Amino acid sequence: MERSEQYGLTLRLIHWLSALTVIGLFAAGWWMVDLTYYSTWYKTAPHWHKSVGICLAALTIFRLVWRSVKGTPSIQGNRFEKIAAHAAHNIIYVLLLVIFTSGYLISTSDGRPIEVFDWFSVPSFGELFPDQSDIAGNIHYYAAYGLIGLVILHAAAALKHHFIDKDNTLRKMIGGKSQ
Hints:
The chain is mostly helical. The protein contains 5 helices and 2 strands. It has a two-stranded antiparallel ribbon with strand order 1-2. The chain starts with 8 loop residues before the first helix and ends in a 5-residue tail after the last helix.
């Protein structure tokens, strides 16, 4: 794995697309829980939420493969910051995996596949364990809040590195010139 001083264009685009998508899916999920059966969005919003979630899952898998092949820049900061950054990144990926899996389990417990836009269907394994939708729904809920908490912490750390430490951490991800 090679180390460069800056993230490549592919990883920068995936990072920002993923960030916007995670925030959008969180906001949509937060809004959707209050929809009633009679809302015009009752079926449309979950369909879009699932479709975008499946696309994000595929993008995340591609991202992990790309990172393992192309490498990433070294993390700046003191020993604690480096350990915290590695831990936060790993937990973000674990939470994404948990959210993708629990979302799949919620959506397919009735035996129906997930229709991703009108492009393709993700097959269902049906109900694999009792109360699958409820259990997976609780996991999905708490994992999503955990992910958003880490996203906020991640953004705050990047801003701290940029404005307080005045290092190149944020510039690596926005493509700016290093100092």
